[in-house]
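Customer escalation, tier 2.

The customer says the design service returned an amino acid string that "doesn't look like it belongs to this structure." They asked us to rerun it and document both sides in this ticket. The original structure tokens are below, unchanged.
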């Protein structure tokens, strides 16, 4: 497809679009299933008050809920994919909206299930789930029971659930304030005034013209600083909400409450921070190298995101990118590459940009249908090859999970999600580096990979440390103000960036602009994910059949284990600091090789 021509959705060839017929052959069939959601909801609700009657009754209830969940997932998957392919399609928008409404109604009606299940005496429920007919539901029930120590009475849980919507006020207001109400001054780009927004800001920081970067940075943080007290109050409200819910549910801290669902020990979180701290010298050396390569007298905060090496002028067609994935991922075996590449060429992927299509990329794999992938592939950007491999890793994880697990235990956690995708990226990187024919290509690949690891491991760990500090301050009785938050964030900036960096007076405003902070203790999963992926990629490529088999056990485990356990099966122990240290060693090796070039 010509990159200077963006077609309407109706003009995109069918071979370039995903094949949604594995979900529904027509919209009419989708409409029939949408109508069935209310019927299935009514059936599931008919078991209210009866779950403890007998094992047969409980099993029938769970099967009714299973049928409802599967229907909701399939209906929502179809309408959601149609809408993301063309957000200007009013029919798709209407379908997706109706699917959301019906799903919300169903989940509200099912609010009785967990408290009632947890009220069944332990000796009774533990005996029931050992029966053969509970085999497909045992793990689902055990994961529900895991929350029993922190589940309140039905009346108290209802109060908490009623408070959930108002609890989102800080996050919603922050989003409206910064994305809608904020008016940034335009940026001067080659004599032309260009709009500055939250979306375009990162584009300007990647501009090789230093004056453009400086102008964007200055104007961006000037606007945030003008509203610092309001934003600080919103973030303090979000942290206070986390602390309230943790204490109400009997947790000793916000961190414990957020890690509890995945059974992740607090030591994993703290080991991540400690291990990165011990390796900051390598990060500081990288910034010294960046300063030298950029030829600047002072390294400024707005200098650290621009690519060190300009894009390599090479076109890679979509089919060529598929071939690269096939060759790079060959260590995973023929079944893996044939399945993935067959999907990339045969209906899994919506390949190119069209008018109204959502930007970026994602993988969306449900229990039915293909594990679909949205791309906006451009043959002039080698990064899009990595994006294809990344999303392909997600989709193959979903493919193995659903083909090896019953529906109620096939879904894996976010903690695990980035492992298979980043694993694929690492194999593609090593393949392209090995086959690079000139120094410029090697420099580009090395600098790109080093920057990616830095952004995912070092930067997200810094964010995670800030979140932890903010919550611990509130839990110790210290109120959060703009002054307190900026002071704590500046300490981290100086610690992580080291002596080469010269900060502006308002550089610490960065800590008040990160949307992820309103979903507390989430970003650390990016850092642990890339650490596990790099360790497993090395283990599989340097190992034999046993190591490869271990990795496939992880891909096939779905939601049958908690994430720490499933990664141990793969051969990496995230409860130790070793995988994080190994990832940091990889970063240091890449930057040293880059320095020699």
């Amino acid at each position: 497809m010509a990159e200077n021509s963006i077609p309407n959705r109706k003009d995109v060839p069918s071979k370039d679009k995903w094949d949604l017929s594995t979900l529904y052959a027509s919209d009419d069939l989708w409409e029939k299933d949408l109508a069935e959601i209310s019927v299935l909801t009514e059936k599931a609700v008919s078991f209210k008050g009866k779950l403890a009657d007998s094992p047969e009754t409980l099993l029938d209830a769970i099967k009714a809920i299973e049928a409802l969940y599967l229907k909701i997932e399939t209906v929502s998957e179809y309408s959601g994919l149609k809408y993301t392919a063309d957000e200007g399609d009013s029919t798709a928008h209407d379908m997706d909206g109706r699917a959301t409404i019906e799903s919300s109604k169903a989940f509200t009606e099912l609010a009785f299930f967990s408290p009632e299940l947890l009220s069944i005496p332990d000796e009774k429920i533990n005996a029931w789930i050992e029966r053969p007919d509970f085999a497909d539901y045992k793990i689902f029930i055990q994961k529900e029971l895991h929350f029993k120590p922190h589940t309140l009475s039905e009346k108290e849980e209802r109060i908490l659930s009623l408070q959930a919507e108002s609890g989102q006020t800080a996050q919603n207001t922050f989003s409206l304030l910064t994305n809608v109400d904020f008016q940034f001054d335009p940026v001067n780009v080659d004599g032309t005034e260009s709009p500055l927004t939250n979306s375009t800001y990162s584009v300007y920081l990647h501009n090789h013209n230093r004056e453009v970067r400086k102008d964007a940075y200055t104007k961006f943080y000037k606007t945030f600083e003008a509203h610092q007290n309001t934003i600080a109050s919103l973030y303090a409200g979000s942290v206070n909400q986390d602390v309230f819910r943790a204490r109400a549910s009997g947790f000793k801290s916000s961190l414990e409450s957020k890690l509890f669902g995945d059974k992740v020990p607090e030591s994993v979180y703290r080991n991540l921070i400690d291990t990165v701290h011990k390796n900051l010298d390598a990060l500081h050396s990288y910034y010294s190298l960046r300063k030298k390569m950029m030829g600047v007298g002072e390294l400024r905060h707005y200098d650290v995101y621009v690519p060190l090496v300009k894009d390599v002028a090479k076109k890679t067609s979509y089919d060529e990118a598929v071939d690269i994935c096939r060759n790079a991922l060959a260590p995973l075996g023929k079944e893996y590459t044939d399945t993935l590449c067959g999907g990339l060429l045969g209906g899994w992927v919506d390949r190119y940009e069209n008018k109204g299509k959502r930007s970026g990329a994602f993988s969306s794999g449900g229990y039915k249908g293909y594990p679909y992938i949205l791309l906006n592939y451009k043959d002039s950007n080698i990064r899009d090859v990595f994006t294809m491999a990344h999303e392909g890793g997600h989709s193959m994880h979903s493919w193995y999970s659903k083909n090896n697990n019953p529906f109620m235990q096939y879904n894996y956690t976010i903690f695990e999600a980035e492992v298979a995708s980043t694993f694929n990226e690492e194999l593609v990187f090593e393949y392209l580096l090995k086959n690079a024919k000139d120094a410029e290509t090697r420099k580009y690949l090395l600098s790109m990979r080093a920057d990616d690891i830095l952004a995912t491991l070092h930067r997200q760990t810094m964010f995670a440390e800030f979140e932890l500090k903010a919550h611990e301050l509130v839990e110790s009785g210290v109120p959060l103000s703009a002054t307190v938050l900026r002071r704590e964030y500046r300490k981290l900036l100086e610690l992580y960036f080291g002596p080469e960096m010269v900060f502006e007076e308002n550089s610490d405003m960065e800590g008040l602009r990160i949307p992820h902070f309103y979903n507390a203790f989430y970003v650390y999963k990016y850092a642990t994910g890339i650490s596990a992926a790099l360790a497993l990629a090395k283990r599989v490529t340097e190992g034999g059949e046993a190591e490869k088999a271990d990795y496939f056990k992880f891909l096939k485990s779905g939601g049958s284990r908690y994430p720490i356990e499933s990664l141990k099966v793969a051969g990496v122990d995230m409860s130790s600091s070793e995988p994080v240290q190994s990832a940091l060693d990889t970063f240091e090796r890449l930057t040293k090789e880059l320095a020699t070039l």
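Tier 2 assessment: The sequence is consistent with the input. The CA atoms of residues 170 and 235 lie 7 Å apart. The two ends are 36 Å apart (CA to CA). Sent an explanation to the customer and offered a walkthrough call.
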